[in-house]
Amino acid sequence: xxxxxxxxxxxxxxxxxxxxxxxxxxxxxxxxxxxxxxxxxxxxxxxxxxxxxxxxxxxxxxxxxxxxxxxxxxxxxxxxxxxxxxxxxxxxxxxxxxxxxxxxxxxxxxxxxxxxxxxxxxxxxxxxxxxxxxxxxxxxxxxxxxxxxxxxxxxxxxxxxxxxxxxxxxxxxxxxxxxxxxxxxxxxxxxxxxx
Length: 195
Description:
It is built from four helices and seven strands; from the N terminus they run E-H-E-E-H-E-E-E-H-H-E. It is of the alpha+beta class and 195 residues long. The two termini are 18 Å apart.
């Protein structure tokens, strides 16, 4: 089932997600709905707060990035084949040089800005079968994970921008809160006018 994506300004996007147990109600259905919602919006990642759930759950499928001809064959293959569900994730380490990449967010449509993130991460999480894993990722996969991880910490990519950049996008963010933005996927806006 395709769920509405929660728009910028909604308090749920600012909550630190709570850990969940394997018996969390309708967990498999929630995960399936999140994948369907993400694919419908042509996203590569989606966190539970973006569908109104303040829990530590996010999903990633970087296959669309695997079509980028500017990347090496190894990078393309890694991205084409990376699909994961992260439950109760905990960032262990972020390392390496910070590098910029133009990011967007399904909860903040029509806003894209360069964000600087570490090139390599170590993360601990449970997969959808509740098997605990600790893994190291780098490059674009690490970036997408960091972006979605921020969501379960109540952080948005716009928080990482300079104060000048924040000023420049202020009107766009206001339009999202007022429901004046019309992406081609289902959204739920803070303003009653946009619902």
